[in-house]
Amino acid sequence: MVAGDRLDRIDGRRRRLLAGLAGVSTGATAGCLQQFRSMANRNSPRDVSLEVKTVPADIDPRGIHIARDVADNLEAVGIGATVTPMDEQELLRDVLINNDFDLYVARHPGYDDPDFLRPLLHSDFVEEPGWQNPFGFTDLEVDDLLDAQRRSSGDRRRRQLSELQRAVARQQPFSVVAFPDDIWAVRTDRFVGWNRFGLRRALGILGLDAETDDPDRLDLVTTDDRLTKNLNPLASEFRNRGTFVGLLYDSLGRRYDGEVRPWLAADWEWSSEGGRPAARVDLREDLTWHDGEPLTADDVAFTYELLADTSLGREEDPIPAPRFRGRVSLVETVRAVGSRTVEFAFADCDPEVAVRAFAVPVLPEAEWESKASEANFAGIGLGGQTTEAVVWDNPNPVGSGPLQFEEREPADSVVFSRFDDHFLHGDEVASRFGATFETLQLQVVPSNDAAIEVLTEARADAAASTIMPKFVPEVAESDDVEVVSKASRSFYHLGFNVERAPLGNPRFRQNVARLLDKGTIVSEVFDDYAVPAATPLAVTDWAAPDLEWDGEDPVVPFFGSGGDLDTDEAHAAFRDAGYRYAKDGSLRNR
């Protein structure tokens, strides 16, 4: 496509995507069948019974502990409850794609700006996959506040966000449990600087300094094997924070030192069009993809078109990419002007919010254009519900990042090498972020115990996946392995499917949320390496003052104290919400 001819309309209208967007080989009807079985297994049409989904203890003992606490307390107040452990990938498919759940316990991947709440909760996103309103939540007051906060700045935005947090706390589409500290085990005999960003971001790896002369390889271990199976940056069920795909794919800007700064972009210049922000972005000179082809403004414009509609207009309704949806929804139009310049026009928002749109992975048009076709599984078409771009495992990724893909062994390992033509390795920021190693190998290990053993035996430099707090004393006693800890904006939460009765009733959701003793959970489950919270903005300066934690949740306090449930108080609350109890003590619908 000739530069300047592309004008990609990227609107914020509600996309329609049926629940069959599974992206799995089990077929498009799996979610419906599971829901039917779930309904068929209820004790009676009138008894209230709920299933709580989460990952098993060998993947994350904290999540299943919270789920069991909720289930035990549900049973104690007369609500039938089961806990269903499942692989993390399967859990995310059920929650983020198939909408096949009653309740779930999981960890949100985190955020860099309060505007992440808009795709998470706005009714415009209720039918989209990914972390786009997986709860099915709709509320006009919340919608208005979500729209207003992105148009504002300073004290006005702060007031709107406080009002938004209070509305969400009353409605409880999800209940924040705690913000855990991220804890990693690392060695410092070959590399230092682990504590600059931690290992949750690509910059944490790029910011390492070598303690020896030109070390050949950085060796990391992980308990999460998903990266060895799928390298698609758009796959929401395979990506949490995208640390390693962030090394393969660059974006126009990256967030560091407290703001989004130019990365692939040499610079950007802001202006206004019709009262809305616009930006002219100039790319760095001589950018190339890993295969040696030039990276141009056309690739950038194509990327935003693809992320907004992975069918590239071939389907009647757009099929947006599940990841980066909130950021791309900020963009109205994007146009390539020459080979190195891109012009953006944004939705009605403040420029401080609009800049978030620059932090999405730029994709090569030559590689991804063909992935706009309808996805098929075992020869079965999914009727335009999803595209190859969303479900492709991207076995040989071609990006422009500081590392390039070398090889992988599914469920075992993946290897990257330094991309020497990257601007970092000859740029003014290289002293901060240039890779000081030739290759990076990520090896899968079965557990935290195995990871620490590998580190103490000097067979790896760090554990890329976080370790549980109970291992901190063991690591602290080692002469060669250290603990790195960072506060996180990634929070554990209990999610409600508000499209299923009785979870559509906010008073019922409030009462279920009050079965969580968050303070005790932080003490017993997180060993105090976490912060209990009543709002998803709790660990930021944006937190509403009246929602600060002061020994209990100010909106949905626990029915009881010290981990002991007051069943009489809980029974009364459910009755006040319009439910009744049968003679056998089971809670029943009205």
Structural notes for this entry:
With 590 residues, the protein is α+β, with helices and mostly antiparallel strands. It has 3 domains: 48-180 and 490-588, Dipeptide-binding Protein, domain 3; 182-243 and 401-486, Periplasmic binding protein-like II (D-Maltodextrin-Binding Protein, domain 2); 250-389, Alpha-Beta Complex (Dipeptide-binding Protein, domain 1), CATH 3.90.76. Helix content is 26%, strand content 22%. It has 20 helices and 28 strands. The strands form 9 sheets. The protein has a 6-stranded mixed β-sheet, sandwiched between helices. The chain has a 5-stranded antiparallel β-sheet with strand order 1-14-15-13-12. The protein has a 5-stranded mixed β-sheet with strand order 18-19-20-9-21. β18 (403-409) and β19 form a beta hairpin. α5 packs antiparallel against α6. The protein starts with 7 loop residues before the first strand and ends with a strand. Residues 1-45 and 378-384 have low confidence and may be disordered.
SSE blueprint:
Blueprint: E1 8-9, H1 30-40, E2 49-54, H2 61-76, E3 80-85, H3 88-97, E4 103-107, H4 117-121, H5 140-151, H6 154-171, E5 174-180, E6 182-187, E7 191-192, H7 202-206, E8 209-210, E9 217-222, H8 226-229, H9 245-248, E10 253-256, E11 259-262, E12 265-273, E13 276-283, H10 297-308, H11 325-328, E14 331-337, E15 341-346, H12 351-354, H13 365-368, E16 376-377, E17 380-381, H14 388-391, E18 403-409, E19 413-418, H15 430-433, E20 439-444, H16 448-456, E21 462-463, H17 472-476, E22 481-486, E23 492-496, H18 506-513, H19 518-524, E24 530-532, E25 560-561, E26 564-565, H20 567-576, E27 580-581, E28 587-588
Parallel strand pairs: 2-3, 2-4, 9-20, 9-21
Antiparallel strand pairs: 1-14, 4-23, 5-23, 5-24, 6-22, 7-8, 10-11, 12-13, 13-15, 14-15, 16-17, 18-19, 19-20, 25-26, 27-28
